[in-house]
Amino acid sequence: MATMENAATRWATFDCYGTLVDWEQGMQETLQSVIQGDVSALLRRYHELEPEVEAERPFRLYRFVLAKTLKRAAASLKLPLAPGAEHALAENLPRWPVFPDVGPALAALKAQGWKLALLSNIDKELIAHTLATFPVAVDLVITAEDVKSYKPGLAHFLRFQDTTAATRKNWVHVARSYFHDITPIHELGILTAWINRGGSADSAPLATVTLPDLTSLPDVLEQLIPAGKEL
Predict the structure, then answer these.
(1) Of 15, 22, 123, 181, which residue is the catalytic one?
(2) Catalytic: 15?
(3) pLDDT at 5 over 60
């Protein structure tokens, strides 16, 4: 049963890390602090292994997913980690930078009357640190800790839908990760904006729109669901 606003409220939901927070820069700088030399291979291996660790049961908080994945990735590449170094990602995550286009874009959306929510594969404690310096206040946050599941599972989206009564008529999901966000939410028929920050040449047939960053997002969302549209 919906508990927030009403079915006519326009919602823009976002993946946080990678879409709004520069996850790659943050991870790369953190890995460089614990591994000597080029960390590109370790970063690639981390990305390959993280979904496997997230899928393991019982459910683990994301700070432990970060640590276990880094330790497993380093071991697979025979890279030594100092004792405790596997916790560096969680320790440094609160300092990962927000992309410069985020503040202006989200502020414009708020001014246009949109409600903003974050649907993130993270812990409540970790995202609280990010939100403490976030440029715009958000209206709702749903974490992996809340739903005991990681995207690309549907639990985040279903919890949001149940909480807000949002539908395709008043909800757009914005994300960079095709795997974690665009593909699964397509199953629910929700409008999506794929933020192709990496400039991938891959096609995006499941995304409603594809954008290189958030600069034009407020205008694009207004075209998708205009203010005053009968919902």
Answers:
(1) 15
(2) yes
(3) no
